[in-house]
Please model this.
Amino acid sequence: MLNRWNDRTAAEYTSPLALRVYTSRLLGQDPSLVLHGGGNTSVKETVRNLLGIEEEILYVKGSGWDLETIEEAGFPAVKLEHLIALARLPALSDMQMVNELRTHMTRASAPTPSVEAILHAVIPHKYVDHTHADALIAITNTAAGRERIAEVFGDDVVVIPYVMPGFDLARLCGERFAKESTSKTIGMVLMNHGIFSFGSTARESYERMIELVARAEDYLKRQGAWDLPAPAPSAPTEGPALRLALATLRRDASRAAGFPLLLVAQRDARSLDFARRPDLAVLTQQGPATPDHVIRTKRIPLLGRDVAAYVAAYQTYFEEHAPRARDKKTMLDPAPRVVIDPEFGVCALGRSAKDAGIVADIYDHTIEILLRAQALGGYRALPAGDIFDVEYWDLEQAKLKSAGATPPFAGEVVLVTGAASGIGKACAEQFLKQGAAVIGFDIDAGVERVAHHPAYLGRVCDVTKEQELAAALEAGVRRFGGLDMLVLNAGIFPPSRRLEALDSREWRRVFDINLDANLNLLREAHPLLKLSPRGGRVVIIGSKNVAAPGPGVAAYSASKAALTQLARVAALEWGEDGIRVNSIHPDAVFDTAIWTDEVLQARAKNYGLTIENYKRKNILRTEIQSRDVAEMAIAMCGPLFSRTTGAQVPLDGGNDRVI
Ligand code: ZN
Model:
């Protein structure tokens, strides 16, 4: 356990709340303490209100904030006296509790206080820190967990048996703490859940947390349960068969969910080694390490690829536990979020790359907890009923809903060629904005820097080289689980040349890139597009020149005309696979790599126009930008074009020859 307290940095945080921010971030920086919104912290302070009256205030983490990045605004101020009075009530429903928390804040715009706010209020110390430390959970989640905790901490902590988070837990903690704490007490262990520390200063509370968790780690070391054996070296399988198998699994899971999901396959040595353990059925099928993981990972992972069996088991689990609930529950989607398979390794599923990343991180830590608990004599999770209660707890579900509306292409994957600049780059950016995961290919290394986003993968790739194309496609599928949409944009526009001066090699090169490479990619992508949960979509970036060629551009015009014909045949052949193929014929998109000053000048000269007049040479006298083409591509992949295939849409401001 690293103590991250730094006197010099701490000195920059002067008020009690500012120091609360500082040490909350220190906790948040250690993923073995808290992960993705987990854990919470608070500070109690006397504040003079607008009328000059002193009030005791609890600043407690607001829901939706992450400890690692929290700011003062992330701590709603709640009236402490009221919270302590609430804790004396015999019962309080969730709705009542949230109402009381929200109506007793002193800042109307603040976020809703953590569901553990009352628990923080009843601990009579200025600073309170709460984490779901991995090392602690590895000890509590064993058959003799209670005895082991006593052995590790003696009477330095108060131990609370497992109770679901919320009012009942807060009340129980308040009672037990009042009865059992002594002047020696520096923490509180919540069995199968996490740990609290507290103190009179931010530093004291933080350092006690570090000390307590370090003791748990030392215990694991003494028991020989800390160092995990090195993973056996393994040769992961590669190739088209693996790609299709992954995409099939993603399709099945998405169907079970009722919406597309991304699937991130982790196939490093450690993940593969875990996925090949003979005792997975015992180890992984009991339940999560700490209950609030359930809303991200579901109660248990799917072992193997039988999604239908997982769905059936989930239904049974729901039907078994739903009748106990006070209010009527509606079943959540029954799709797995973690899949463990000897060939795929450990897969995480989510509606966005960020969500899948959270699932992957949580399960990564879960694996360590499982293995350490196993080394202590056997992992023991809470009964399924307790996990169900948290999974179907409205206050937990509200955490997910607060993430906002789902964007139109959430869970879907698009591959854009020529993504480093111009139309391709605009497509990559717009699809990202609309929630899609984007794989960008380009021969230009700039493709790797188009976006810094978990949903973006840029690959340097010469689309004319079949092997490079296949390898890049493989990397994309491993990252996101499949392919739903393809935007064929990569192309070149050679210098203007009349037929009598047209070199055969140049002609071939234009066809290689503008036509042949697209055939290769279409052929390789077809089986993946066929597995798209919503049906595959292809958008071809053609050219005005298909309908209205210009002098001096024979190779370009002929290659785009052939590409258009290829797209029409693809539309005919692939309709039965649910794949739509539509083309855009843009003209005069000048913010692209094709339009160097040299090309622009030559084209303008061909028409006897100035560059300025050449740019607006269309019926609507309008300018067309890459972004306009990207939005048309998005429309063609969206519901507006759901009944259209084989279409060719001009995007040229109106051209009399085309019309
Ligand atoms: Zn907690």
About this structure: The longest strand covers residues 40-48. Residues 116, 130, 132, 165, 193-194 surround zinc ion (CB under 6 Å). DSSP finds 24 helices and 18 strands in the chain. The chain has a mean pLDDT of 93.
